[in-house]
Amino acid sequence: MNVLILGANGFIGSHLSEAILAQTDWQIHAMDLAQDKIETCLQHPRFHFVSGDITKQKDWIRERIQHCDVILPLVAVATPALYVQDPLRVFELDFEANLEIVRQCAEYKKHVIFPSTSEVYGMCPDTEFDEENSNLVTGPINKERWIYSTSKQLLDRVIYAYGKHKGLSYTLFRPFNWYGPRLDNVFNPKPGGSRVLTQFIGNILRGENINLVNGGSQQRCFTYVGDGVDALLRIIKNKNDSARNKIFNIGNPSENISIRKLAETLISLITQSYPNYAERAKSVQLVDIDAQQYYGEGYQDVSLRVPLVRHANEQLGWTPQVSMETGLRATLDFYLN
Question: What structural domains and CATH numbers belong to the chain?
Answer without folding.
Answer: 76-336 (3.40.50.720)
